Amino acid sequence: MSRLTVKIDTDAITSNVATLVGRTTAAVMAVVKADGYGHGLVEAGRAARAGGATWLGVAQPHEALELRALGDEGRILTWLYGPDFPARELIEAGVDVSVSSAEVLGEIVAVSRDGAPCPRVHIAVDTGLGREGVTLAELPGLLELVKAAQREGLVRVVGMWSHLAWADAPGHPTIDLQARVFRQALVIAQQASIALEVRHLANSACTLTRPDLHFDLVRPGIAIYGLPPVEDPEGKNFGLKPAMSVTSEIILVKDVPAGQGVSYGHEYVTVHPTTLGLVSAGYADGVFRAAGSVAEVSVRGRRYRIAGRVCMDQFVIDLGPATTVCVGDEVTLIGPGGPSAQDWATAVGTIDYEIVCRFGGSRPKTFS
What we know:
By secondary structure, this protein is α/β, with parallel strands linked by helices. The chain has two domains: 10-224, Alpha-Beta Barrel (TIM Barrel), CATH 3.20.20.10; 244-367, Lyase, Ornithine Decarboxylase, Chain A, domain 1 (Beta Barrel). The protein has helices at 10-21, 33-37, 41-50, 61-69, 87-92, 102-113, 139-151, 173-191, 204-209, 341-348, 352-360; strands spanning 5-8, 27-31, 55-58, 75-78, 96-99, 120-124, 156-161, 198-200, 217-218, 244-256, 261-262, 268-269, 274-279, 296-299, 302-305, 315-320, 330-334, 365-367. The two termini are 24 Å apart. The model has no long low-confidence stretch (mean pLDDT 97).
């Protein structure tokens, strides 16, 4: 059994959201999709609410329904689905729903016509990301359908939104281009006499760097977990604190001679007589197999690079010839005194989003 432990500091999430609330005049939607980016859906949601988030955002309908089932009574938006989605359950639970196509709108209208409460709808506009949402050319036709449904009291359009492709590169020309398209979409809605409660475009990066694009609502995701996607020019991480730590322990310590091959394929060979430490965690626990010989961990405040290949449930570190490390010592993969999620991302060639989602995943977590 792996001794990998994932700990979530919910107070850090609360503090991060409060920091983000303080950076904007808009309302804040804390995005807790994908099990709160690996930090726990419900726990992250509660912590975000405590920090001042008046909305929660999730991609999948089941996440919204789980939040409702476990007691969240505030505004929730869900957005990622096709026409075959649990529209009735969402609407009856008071969840705001996004519309990216006429087919999705048709399903919502059908459920409403069949006796469900009048649904709160947000129109998704594709302003250049090429993912969810209707194009600017398609928008007038969709709004005509929406207006007809509104006249019958079958829907209530409360929002319009879009998502940025390159906000994590401040100054990239696509940001202003997409903002221009979004503003055009808002004008089209106004000309169609669609009254909007909330207009929202800003993700974490935009929340931190582009206050001119906050509109009525911002949707920070990764930043609420203390991992801003842009560099703080002041070097203070924007006042945000990472919420996840990942630890394991040393389960075996042994002396080996020079020339000892380590782990599968002997990609690492000891140069001198040394001491090896066996760590109980592997790629089945979220440790990237590609982390072998490149990623580091920390024991007793000292960094050690993984020696050779990561295995399914274990990896090895070379502790050196005069180590004081012993069996039972804690190994920090991510956390205070050890590597960060970004350190791991740099080592294996990915982004810190994937690191925390992978380590968090569906495995048990402890919360504090």
